[in-house]
Protein: Nicotinate phosphoribosyltransferase
Amino acid sequence: MTEGVPCSPLLTDYYQLTMMEAYLRHDMTQTAVFEFFVRKLPDQRRFLMAAGLEQVLEFLEQLRFSSETLDWLERHGHASRTLIDYLAGLRFTGDVDAMAEGTVFFADEPVLRITAPLPVAQLVESRVMNLLHFQCMIASKAARMVLAAPGKRLVDFGLRRAHGAEAGLLAARAAYVAGFDGTATVLAGQAFGIPLYGTMAHSFILAHGDELAAFEDFVRIHPDNTILLIDTYDTRRGAQRVVELAERLRGTDIRIRGVRIDSGDLDTASREVRAILDAAGLHEVTIFASGNLDESRLARLQRDGAPIDGFGVGTRMDVSDDAPYLECAYKLQEYAGQPRRKRSEGKATWPGSKQVYRRHDEHGQLRGDLIALASERAEGEPLLQPVMRGGQRVAPAPGLAAARAHGERQLAGLPAMLRDLAPGPADGPAVSDALRALARQLDATG
Amino acid sequence: MTEGVPCSPLLTDYYQLTMMEAYLRHDMTQTAVFEFFVRKLPDQRRFLMAAGLEQVLEFLEQLRFSSETLDWLERHGHASRTLIDYLAGLRFTGDVDAMAEGTVFFADEPVLRITAPLPVAQLVESRVMNLLHFQCMIASKAARMVLAAPGKRLVDFGLRRAHGAEAGLLAARAAYVAGFDGTATVLAGQAFGIPLYGTMAHSFILAHGDELAAFEDFVRIHPDNTILLIDTYDTRRGAQRVVELAERLRGTDIRIRGVRIDSGDLDTASREVRAILDAAGLHEVTIFASGNLDESRLARLQRDGAPIDGFGVGTRMDVSDDAPYLECAYKLQEYAGQPRRKRSEGKATWPGSKQVYRRHDEHGQLRGDLIALASERAEGEPLLQPVMRGGQRVAPAPGLAAARAHGERQLAGLPAMLRDLAPGPADGPAVSDALRALARQLDATG
Structure:
C-alpha cells in the first residue's frame, strides 16, 4: 500500500452494497463491462490527459474485506449474511483495458474498461472514478502549464491547498506525468520518487527579523541549495541584500543559485531583480517565481519575455481551479453479453464494449480519433490496451518515468489547434457506423 | 489513526525541512506563534464556517518520525545528522487555541493559533493548512446549501469526484458539521458515524434491462430501504411503473418509500411524478432529487415550490466548484516574544498573537466581530479557546454531533444580510486600535 493512498474497500457508495445484495439474491453475477469516460470537456480544455491507472490497478489488486470490516458491516445492518459471505471471498479477478498514463484523450472516449462479475465491477465504481477522475483532471491542467512555459522548470507547490493529503500526493504525481520537474511535497518524493524542491518560506525571514542575516544563515547551512526568498519586505531591497551577501561570500565555496519572488507584479519585479543581479555580475543567479500562477499567467510572462527561469505552481494546479471537476462517468455498457444503453435526458451513452483508434499524419501529429466497437477493426492505433487479465497484470507497471516520457511525446504530437490555451471548438471524436447502428437498435427495442 | 486520513510527518513541504535544518544549527528554537486565517473571502461567500480542528489535533497528537522515515530522509540526503536526531525525539508539545468547529468566521480572523518551538510549528504548517483549508471550504459551501433548502433532507453524494479518498471522507464530515443529514460514502459512516444513505444506480436498472423487474427485485430485498431510481429510460414511465409495482405489492409488508430523479428539469419532472404518484394515492412516497445540484439550484427549486423532499448533492459540494480554494495562510505572528509582520505586496498580515471578539444583538443575532491582540480585553465572546496545552488536549474531543449542533446555532444566528446567497459586500471585521498601532510600529522599524 502506498502511504497516503488508502485501500479500504469501504471507499465506496452505500448504494453499491444495496445493489450487490440484490444482484446476489437474484443470481445476477454474470460478466459486466463498465467503461470510464468523460462526457464533455470543460470549456477551458481542448484535450485531457490520462493519469491514475497505476493507483486503480493497485486498488484492484488489494481489494479485500478484512474480518473487522465485515464485522462492522454486519453489526450495523449494512449487509446480510449472503452478502457478507460473498464479500469475505471477494477478490478482483476481472480484466482491465486502459489507455496508458500520459495519453491525450477526448470526450466520450473510454479511458478504462473493467470486465468483471457484475457485483464486483459495481462495487469498485466509486473508488475507480475517484482515483481516475482526479489524476486525469490534474494531468490535464498541468499539461497546459507545460505547454505555456516550454523549457522552464516547473515545480508543484500545492499541498497546502490541495483537497486533503491524497489530493496533494496524487497531484504531485499527475503533474509529473504531464511534464512537471518536481514537487515540494516530501511524501510524494518518498512514495513515487519524484524530485523534491524547496528552500525557505517568509516565516524564515520573519523569524530572523534581519533579512540579510537570514540569507547568510541559510546559505551557510545549505551551500548547494540556495534559492533565497527576497520579497518578504521589499523585493528590490531583497535583491540588493543578495548582492551584498554574494560579496561577503567571495572566496568561499558557497554559491547562491537563485532567488525566488512570491508576490507583486512578477514581470516588473523579475526585470528589476535581473538588472540588480546582472549589474553585480551575478548572471548565473537564476530567478524563480511563484504566487497565484496558472497557465495564462505563465503564458503571458513567457510572451513578454520576463527573465524568469522557473515557476512554483500551487493552488491553481492542485485544485484545477478553472475546472475543478470533469463530467466523468463509469457506465455499464454490457451485461451477460448484451450491450446496454442509458438514455436519461442529457446523459445518454454509447453502448457496448468500445475501442478508440487514433490516426496520425506523416509527421506524427494527432489527426483524429474514432470511437468504435471493441469488436470492430479500424485504421489507426488502438488506445485501450490490456493491462489486467483475470486479476493479474499482463506486464509489470511501466513506472512513472515511462508515463512521463509518454506524456511528453503525446504533447509533442498535438497539433497547434489543440495546443492553444484559449477555450476553443470542442469537436468530439468520430463515432463508427457500427456503434451508431447499435445505439439506434437499442433505442428502438427499449 | 482514522482510516483514510494518513498521518505521515512527511505530509509537509520540502522547505520545512531545509528551514528546520537552519533553525537548529542557529539555535532558533524559541517559541513561535503561527495563526491560520483566510485573507479574503471568495466573492461568492458572505461567511465561512470552521471545520477540521479535530483532524488537526489528531495529526499533532500522532506526530512522530518512525525509524523507517528517518532512514529514508538520511539515505536521500534530505536531513543532516543534527536534524535526524531532533526529528527522532520530536513530539508536538505546544499549545493550540482555536474556534470550535461549526463557528462562522470572516476574513483575517485567526481560526487556529499554534504556539510551539519554531522548528515544530514550522514543520506542521503544510498539513495543518491542508486539513483546515479543505474542511473550512466544504463546510462553508455546504452551509449555503443548508440555508438554501431549509427542512429538506440533504445527503452528500460526492465521493467519486472528490479530489481523492481523503477529500471524499472529510467532505462528508464537513458537510455533516454544516447541517447535512448524511452521506453515501461508506467509509465516512465507519470513520465518523455519519448516517449512510443510498439505494440504486442506473446500472442496476440497465443490468436488469426490464425496469419494472429491477424495481421489484430491489424492494423485495430491501423492503425498508426502497427509493427507486426512475429516470434511466423515461422519468414519467418510471413513475408509472412505480405505481404498477405498488399495486402488485398491495397486501404485502413492503412499502415504497420514495423515488429518485437524477436528470432533466427537476422542477417539471418532480411535479409530473408527484401528480402520477398522487393520482394513484401514493401520497406518502417521497421524491428525492440529484444531478448537478448546487445551492442556487436548490434555492430556485425551493422558491418555485418543486415538490421535492430531499436532495443528493455531489460534485459541486465536494469540490466547492464555485470557490475550489480559499485564500488561506498560516503565518508567523510572533517569535521569541516579538511580534512579526509580513509586508509582501498584497499579502501584509496583522501582527502578533490575536483574538476575535464577537458581539450579538439582544435576539442572539451576530452583530459584528473585532480582531484584537490576544493580550487585549474587549466586549463580546472570545472565539478562540484553548484546545491543547503542552501537547495535551484540555478537554476530550467534543464530538461530531456537538460540532453539528454548534453549526446549526451559528447559522440560526446569521442576520439576513449574511444568509443571502448572492455575492455581496464583504465588510471585513473591525480591527482594534492597539493592533493597528502595533502594525504601524513594526512597519516603521522594519
Remarks:
- The longest helix of chain B spans residues 125-148.
- The domain at 14-139+324-445 of chain B is CATH 3.20.140.10 (nicotinate phosphoribosyltransferase).
